[in-house]
């Protein structure tokens, strides 16, 4: 039985639900209608439930993309350290002195990755691993036999790295060509960021970089050739090796303010990935998602032709595909890791949780991050004091978690404020540990003030008097406005490796955050804004514009200005200011391609479009309104049970209430549904085929999507008992077109839990990797056209028209001399019925059109035991894909047994296919036509292959064995199944069955045996038989015509005797020849 209760009754943790502490406990709860356990899921974060298996997509080892002026392809790179040598595992303490100390016979402190003695002396430490040197030797074998190295014969130390880079450059594989960084736009490109709408110091750079090179010449990153890969990574595939290299060369730069390769604490995670696959997969997911965004970031200075644009899109798609697969695996590993956190260690678990947050923020920042952050908070509470002398990695991870918590809380309704492990009193001490080089470039005291203002805005009047709220708000405003940014900025120079950083841009970034915090206070606490007056806010905005405009795009602190840009953008009153803000956000995307920036660009127009009544409340208060929350799905407390759980149906209704007008928002919806139910995108993969199909459907969001939405939300009204029984033998289920449309809407949304292990939904059509892309695109077009038609029809009409699904069944007939379920009982007295043979240019699904088959006709469809749609262009898949109402049969049809067939009557065909397999064409019925009857009968050869009855060298041919089609038991099976199908509707004088050589191609059926058995079954059922052949089959068809004209063939018994006369060891496709030879 398909339990719609599994849709209405699935329990999921509400967005305001319990803490992650409960997530780490027993995570299963019973569905009210099912005996099986249903997963308890934290919205989109299934750490606590192992997701079902996903169709793993092949990793893209080679990515193609376009930089500003680089078209990079066939890239495989390796991770490296700052000295150009392979990295060493942190778990292995050096047992020997570094190479410098050994040569000079000095005592080495064996610090990793660099000896402090070398560093203090201003020397480059050569590390502890092996030193590789180009010798100029002659190769003795292989393709390079007799050739010498092009590098100098005497290269040592740092010169070896230089020689290596030269060698790469000479071979056309220089680091820049390989895609480690993207070159800046040339001055001739003509692109210049617009000047700010206000301000006197609004200098902007004359050119921009897609990815700025933030290292100074002294800090220049050094590359290693592909063959010099650290043994740590030898067992990794090329794809993971590349993404780990991308992490250390590109993504790490976004995680700190100034990226000094040897001092970036996040790079120390890399050696831990070998021992901790969880860390490896989540870092790969973050890197691949980041690369996907980077490749598709807008390039205003680049004039692309169609081929380059296609390759950019293709590269972005492949990177996103890798990210989804890696994230799915990481989610599984996270579930296992949380069972015993001591095994992997608290720091590794915290790093994984933090990067789950990062992945969500890189993808879109709309969902998932909050629950991951709660998990990170829970892990933080379990951390033991670190025994390591270097706590920089932990400090930065804790700092980032607190920053995400504070910024996330700034726009979160009070009911969703985390019952958290983030204590306000800890904010200054935690943030101070990484303040010098934090990516946000914001003083800790400003963050504490921001958090205080956020909490103040959530206080109710009945808790604290308005006067007290105003007084505290003014005090916070004064504290923020008077903070000494210059002194804070200069404090960073106390850190040895930051003594040369640009202080001016740090002052501008810190000042922008300080002023943005002041603006936030004015909006979050309206009483404060009223007390200081509107001119004060305008002055703050002008100063923020000036500070932002003073930070050029290629400055390391440019990426730190996202939050103040959003705040001042929300205050933008005129079109010029709004345009400047949106342009700056677009440049931020190119500099730091994190998806939450796209969310910010989507949110600002919402704020600008608020009506006067809502603006009078303040835009922050409006965003905190649960009805306006743009980050989270919002549910009332009344929807939750005592455990903070809500039914999935209520969550789904909230998701469907969103305004979906473009592909990104639809993708977010589908991903949220899939991850909530299955723990991953599952078969949907990267949604590439679906995205392309929607792009080719110009009216999708205006005509198709509203219709899908209408029927999806109508499901409870369509099925008041919340269940659909699985069809029993002989049972008929009648569904209205409206009910079918509701089912199809949820199959499109993939919002049904699997009622049985072999169940699948339309997600099999969504991934870009399809066996038959053309067929899948047409199936989706058929589905979209169906909803467009249903959306224009009168509601009463779609509720009145019915589609019938009947599981035809008969008693098994092992003795063909007896047909216990048929009349008349004597085969000798049953004359063979009228048979018509027709030649077509191409096979077609036109006979499903009732105009061709008639009210009393039926079309035979050669099916699998598990009937339904698919990704190819078999006869079954073409008929089901052309008539979407046939697709719902997979929800309640069991696996067909030997004596069963499925009859589907009146499913409306939307399109007509011509041809088969790779050679297909199609047209849409306009105007729409009515559908006839389809008879789904599984082929014998498929069943035999499933049961292992055919050997690998005997699939249909005898080779000394019996032809399966001629085995007495099998002939009885085929005859019984066909008779059950042909007697499933009332007999009239016009009752006709249409068939072809179905099951006789890839399924290895014997055509003569099959057609004779179908003729016999039609005769026993009193039906006429019409057989169609295409041009390629007509040679055989003409022979079959002669066979039917034999005078000896008069009754059903005659046909059976003819089949029994054929030797059982006759080879497949030779039965007709034997009959002709022995006539």
Query: What is the CATH architecture descriptor of the domain at 807-915 and 930-944 and 962-1077?
Result: 3-Layer(aba) Sandwich
Total E-strand runs: 19
Mean of residue pLDDT? 75
Strand order of the largest sheet: 10-11-14-17-13-18-19-12
Task: Report on this structure.
The protein is an alpha/beta fold. Among the domains are: 34 residues, CD2-Gal4; 205 residues, no CATH class; 145 residues, no CATH class; 240 residues, Leucine Aminopeptidase, subunit E, domain 1, CATH 3.40.220. Helices cover 43% and strands 8% of the residues. The protein has 41 helices and 19 strands. The strands form six sheets. The protein has an eight-stranded mixed β-sheet, with helices on both faces. The chain has a three-stranded mixed β-sheet with strand order 5-2-8. The protein has a two-stranded antiparallel sheet with strand order 1-9. Strand 15 and strand 16 form a beta hairpin. Helix 21 packs antiparallel against helix 22. The longest helix has 32 residues. The chain is elongated. About 20% of the residues have low confidence.
Would you spell out the secondary-structure blueprint of this structure?
Blueprint: E1 2-3, H1 5-8, E2 11-13, H2 20-23, E3 28-30, E4 37-39, E5 41-42, E6 65-66, E7 71-72, H3 99-104, H4 116-120, H5 158-170, H6 175-178, H7 238-254, H8 277-296, H9 306-337, H10 341-344, H11 346-363, H12 369-382, H13 392-409, H14 427-432, H15 444-457, H16 466-481, H17 485-491, H18 503-524, H19 526-532, H20 534-549, H21 562-570, H22 575-591, H23 596-608, H24 612-617, H25 619-624, E8 645-647, H26 648-656, H27 663-678, H28 688-695, H29 700-713, H30 715-718, E9 723-724, E10 732-736, H31 737-749, H32 773-792, H33 795-800, E11 802-809, E12 835-839, H34 850-853, E13 857-863, H35 875-882, E14 900-905, E15 911-916, E16 919-924, E17 933-938, H36 940-946, H37 968-982, E18 992-995, H38 1007-1020, E19 1024-1029, H39 1034-1044, H40 1052-1060, H41 1071-1077
Parallel strand pairs: 2-5, 12-19, 13-17, 13-18, 18-19
Antiparallel strand pairs: 1-9, 2-8, 3-4, 6-7, 10-11, 11-14, 14-17, 15-16
């Amino acid at each position: 039985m398909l339990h719609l209760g599994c849709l209405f009754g699935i329990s999921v943790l509400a967005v305001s639900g319990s803490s992650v502490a409960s997530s780490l406990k027993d995570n299963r709860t019973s569905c009210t209608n099912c005996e099986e356990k249903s997963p308890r899921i934290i919205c989109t974060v299934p750490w606590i439930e192992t997701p079902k298996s996903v169709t793993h997509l092949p990793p893209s080892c080679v990515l193609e993309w376009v930089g500003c002026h680089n078209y990079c392809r066939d890239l495989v790179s390796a991770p490296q350290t700052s000295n150009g040598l392979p990295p060493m595992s942190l778990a292995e303490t050096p047992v020997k002195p570094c190479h410098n100390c050994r040569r000079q016979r000095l005592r080495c402190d064996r610090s990793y990755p660099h000896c402090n003695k070398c560093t203090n002396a201003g020397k480059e430490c050569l590390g502890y691993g092996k030193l590789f040197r180009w010798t100029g030797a002659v190769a003795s074998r292989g393709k390079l036999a007799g050739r010498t190295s092009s590098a100098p014969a005497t290269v040592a130390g740092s010169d070896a790295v230089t020689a290596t880079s030269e060698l790469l450059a000479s071979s056309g594989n220089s680091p820049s060509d390989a895609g480690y960084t993207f070159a800046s736009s040339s001055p001739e490109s003509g692109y210049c960021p617009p000047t700010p709408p206000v301000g006197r110091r609004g200098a902007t750079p004359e050119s921009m970089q897609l990815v700025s090179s933030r290292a100074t010449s002294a800090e220049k990153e050094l590359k290693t050739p592909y063959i010099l890969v650290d043994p740590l990574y030898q067992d990794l595939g090329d794809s993971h090796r590349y993404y780990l290299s991308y992490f250390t060369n590109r993504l790490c730069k976004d995680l700190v303010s100034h990226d000094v390769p040897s001092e970036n604490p996040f790079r120390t995670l890399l050696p831990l990935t070998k021992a901790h696959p969880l860390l490896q997969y989540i870092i790969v997911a973050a890197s691949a998602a980041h690369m996907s965004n980077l490749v598709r970031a807008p390039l205003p200075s680049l004039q692309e032709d169609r081929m380059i644009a296609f390759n950019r899109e293709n590269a972005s798609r492949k990177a996103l595909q890798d990210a989804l697969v890696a994230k799915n695996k990481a989610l599984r590993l996270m579930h296992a890791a949380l069972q015993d956190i001591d095994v992997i260690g608290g720091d590794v678990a915290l790093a994984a949780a933090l990067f789950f947050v990062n992945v969500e923020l890189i993808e879109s920042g709309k969902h998932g991050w909050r629950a991951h952050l709660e998990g990170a908070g829970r892990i933080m509470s379990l951390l033991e004091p670190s025994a390591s002398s270097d706590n920089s990695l932990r400090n930065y991870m804790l700092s980032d978690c607190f920053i995400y918590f504070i910024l996330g809380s700034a726009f979160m309704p009070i009911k969703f404020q985390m019952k958290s492990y983030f204590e306000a009193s800890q904010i200054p001490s935690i943030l101070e540990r990484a303040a010098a080089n934090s990516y946000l470039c914001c003083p800790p005291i400003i963050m504490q003030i921001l958090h205080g203002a956020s909490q103040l805005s959530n206080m109710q009047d009945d808790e604290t008097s308005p006067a007290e709220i105003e007084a505290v708000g003014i005090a916070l405003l004064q504290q923020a406005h008077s903070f000494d940014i210059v002194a804070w900025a200069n404090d960073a120079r106390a850190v040895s490796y930051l003594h040369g950083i640009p202080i001016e841009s740090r002052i501008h970034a810190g000042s922008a955050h300080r002023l943005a915090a002041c603006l936030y206070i004015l909006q979050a606490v309206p009483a404060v804004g009223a007390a200081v007056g509107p001119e004060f806010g305008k002055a703050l905005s002008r100063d923020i514009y000036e500070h932002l405009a003073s930070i050029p795009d290629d400055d390391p602190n440019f990426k730190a200005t996202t939050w103040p840009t959003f705040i001042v953008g929300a205050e933008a009153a005129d079109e010029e200011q709004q345009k400047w803000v949106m342009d700056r956000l677009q440049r931020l995307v190119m500099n730091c391609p994190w998806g939450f920036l796209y969310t910010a660009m989507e949110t600002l127009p919402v704020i600008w479009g608020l009506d006067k009544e809502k603006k009078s409340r303040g835009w922050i208060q409006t965003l905190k309104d649960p009805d306006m929350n743009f980050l989270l799905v919002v549910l009332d407390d009344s929807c939750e049970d005592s455990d903070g759980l809500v039914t999935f149906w209520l969550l789904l209704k909230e998701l469907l209430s969103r305004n979906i007008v473009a592909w990104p928002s639809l993708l977010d919806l589908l991903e949220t549904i899939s991850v909530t139910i299955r723990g991953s995108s599952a078969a949907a993969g990267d949604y590439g085929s679906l995205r392309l199909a929607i792009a080719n459907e110009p009216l999708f969001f205006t005509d198709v999507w509203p219709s899908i939405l209408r029927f999806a939300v109508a499901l409870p009204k369509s099925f008041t008992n919340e269940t659909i029984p699985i069809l029993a033998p002989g049972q008929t289920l009648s569904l209205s077109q409206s009910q079918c449309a509701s089912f199809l809407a949820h199959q499109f949304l993939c919002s049904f839990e699997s009622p049985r292990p072999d169940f699948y939904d339309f997600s099999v059509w969504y991934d870009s990797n399809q066996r038959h892309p053309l067929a899948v695109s047409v199936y989706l077009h058929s589905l979209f056209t169906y909803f467009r038609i249903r959306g224009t029809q009168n509601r009463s009409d779609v509720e009145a028209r019915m589609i019938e699904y009947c599981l035809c069944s008969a008693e098994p007939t092992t003795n063909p001399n007896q047909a216990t379920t048929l009349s008349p009982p004597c085969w000798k007295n049953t004359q063979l019925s009228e048979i018509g043979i027709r030649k077509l240019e191409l096979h077609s699904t036109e006979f499903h059109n009732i105009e061709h088959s008639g009210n009393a006709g039926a079309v035979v469809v050669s099916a699998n035991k598990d009937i339904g749609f698919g990704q190819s262009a078999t006869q079954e898949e073409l008929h089901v894909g052309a008539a979407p109402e046939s697709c719902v049969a997979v929800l309640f049809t069991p696996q067909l047994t030997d004596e069963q067939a499925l009859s589907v009557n009146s499913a409306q065909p939307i399109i007509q296919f011509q041809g088969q397999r790779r050679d297909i064409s199609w047209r849409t019925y306009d105007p729409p036509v009515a559908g006839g009857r389809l008879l789904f009968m599984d082929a014998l050869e498929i069943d035999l292959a499933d049961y292992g009855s055919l050997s690998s060298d005997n699939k249909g041919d005898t080779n000394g064995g019996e032809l399966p089609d001629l085995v007495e038991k099998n002939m009885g099976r085929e005859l019984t199944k066909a008779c059950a199908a042909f007697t499933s509707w009332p007999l009239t004088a016009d009752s006709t069955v249409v068939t072809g050589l179905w099951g006789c191609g890839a399924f290895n059926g014997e055509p003569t045996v099959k057609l004779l058995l179908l003729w016999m079954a039609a005769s026993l059922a009193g039906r006429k038989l019409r057989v169609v052949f295409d041009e390629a089959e007509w040679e055989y068809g003409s022979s079959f015509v002669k066979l039917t004209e034999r005078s000896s063939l008069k009754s059903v018994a005659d046909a059976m005797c003819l089949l029994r006369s054929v030797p059982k060891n006759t080879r497949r496709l030779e039965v007709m020849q034997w009959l002709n030879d022995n006539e």
